[in-house]
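mind reviewing both lines:
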Amino acid sequence: MVSCSVGLSTSGWGALFRGPWFGYDVFQVGQRRMKVTEERGYEITDFSTLPGVDCPCGTARRAFADVADLPATIHVTEISADARLHYHRKLTETYYFLECGPDARMQLDDEFLPVHPGMCIFIRPGTRHRAIGRMRVLIVVFPKFDPDDEWFDSSS
């Protein structure tokens, strides 16, 4: 069986072909074909093995930045103190709260919301945000995380 999906990539409109004779997926834009995945149809990461990186929110462990056919990155971020108020011009973030201290909150622009494990917040570009209190958060960033898209107002 062969399947074909049509969509927009960073290179323009194209089609993703799947079939038994390829051995892997092929994304075609015009006359150009790009190999999308190896024979394996999945990727695995172990966040405990990833290095922690300082960020405005605390310490982030970022996964799948090198996976070409995943248009996002997945982060597990530890917040041990109040994060720095920041925003992104291009990035969209979805926070899923794994663990939270009793007074954990999120600042979203001028609003302060209590958060708890199991809660999820979708944050659009341009929204000033920060975590307040101790928490551990799974963050899905779309498109892939770019450290050059972290912005701070002069007063924060």
In short: Residues 1-14, 20-24, 27-34 have pLDDT under 50 and may be disordered.
